[in-house]
Specification:
GO terms for molecular function: oxidoreductase activity. The chain has 10 helices and 6 strands, in the order H-E-H-E-H-E-H-E-H-E-H-E-H-H-H-H. It is of the alpha/beta class and 272 residues long. The strands form 2 sheets. It has a 4-stranded parallel beta sheet with strand order 3-4-5-6, covered by helices on one side. It has a two-stranded parallel ribbon with strand order 1-2.
Length: 272
């Protein structure tokens, strides 16, 4: 999703800074983007920042150096995800829990707070968007993913809190600094290889939805129409029914990875 977003932004003339934890992969994406830029005769800069979002501690100097100078108009916090687990929270190690929270929450907080002074400066001259990629798991935790669900709920709260803090301090009176939490369902990516459908758009289609809905009103936005309808349906369902459906979908998608070797029928029976 991040790669698709970077491609879309450079095609629109944005300079981009892409982040990842593998320098070899980052360099390959950078070269691909630069080639696309040169072929289109655009004057666009592509920078890379290599840092492990699951590490739990980061230092701002490198990020500040990479973002010094140009106005920062769009920040998209795409990092996130978790391994599917077959055991409850009491079976998860400290390292597992810290890694999930760092990858999905703490790293996004670090990036946002590091860039916030520059974002305020840009907002004095024009619109700025900070977009945090959320997940439907924040609405109803799938089996064994309570920490992942909590990380997305925390991310939503921080996006709201940033907006509230700016209003309380009397800044951003013109609304130029806009922080949003994106409600995201299934998207076809390298790690989610299910067949693309209306409910599972390709990354390329989804990032177009994101940019199209970037200025939509409200602090919580579902860029994809089907994802938005899914949120509405989930919120209407009784809690236990929603839990059963979430469990059933996990088993259908991940099988023994979720059940720990149990049969699909046995797990479906247990979850109901």
């Amino acid at each position: 999703m991040g790669k698709a977003l970077a491609k879309e932004l450079v095609s629109r003339g944005f300079d981009v800074l892409i982040h990842g934890r593998n320098m070899t992969k980052l360099a390959a994406v950078r070269d691909e983007l630069r080639l696309a830029v040169s072929e289109s005769n655009r004057d666009v800069d592509v920078k890379v920042w290599c840092a492990d979002a699951s590490a739990g501690r980061w230092y701002p100097a490198e990020l500040l150096a990479l973002t010094e100078g140009p106005d920062i108009a769009v920040v998209v916090l795409v990092n996130g995800g978790t391994d599917i687990k077959s055991y409850a929270i009491d079976g998860q190690t400290d390292d597992e829990i810290h890694s999930v929270m760092s990858l999905n929450f703490f790293f996004s907080v670090f990036v946002t707070r590091t860039l916030l002074p520059a974002l305020r400066s840009t907002a004095a001259r024009g619109p700025v968007s900070v977009l945090a990629v959320g997940s439907h798991v924040a609405l109803i935790p799938p089996p064994y993913l309570s920490v992942y669900s909590a990380s997305k709920n925390a991310l939503q709260s921080v996006m709201h809190g940033i907006a509230a803090d700016e209003r309380f301090a009397g800044r951003n009176v013109d609304g130029n600094l806009d922080s949003k939490y994106l409600q995201v369902g299934s998207v076809h990516t390298a790690s989610n290889k299910g067949k693309p459908t209306l409910a599972r758009p390709t990354s390329e289609a989804f990032v177009k939805d994101v940019l199209r809905r970037m200025t939509a009103p409200g602090r919580i936005v579902a860029p994809n129409l089907v994802h938005g309808i899914s949120v509405w349906v989930i919120m209407l369902l009784p809690e236990r029914l929603a839990e059963r459906l979430a469990g059933r979908q996990m088993v259908e998608a991940w099988g023994e990875t979720v059940t720990g070797g149990k049969s699909r029928a046995a797990c479906a029976s247990t979850s109901s």
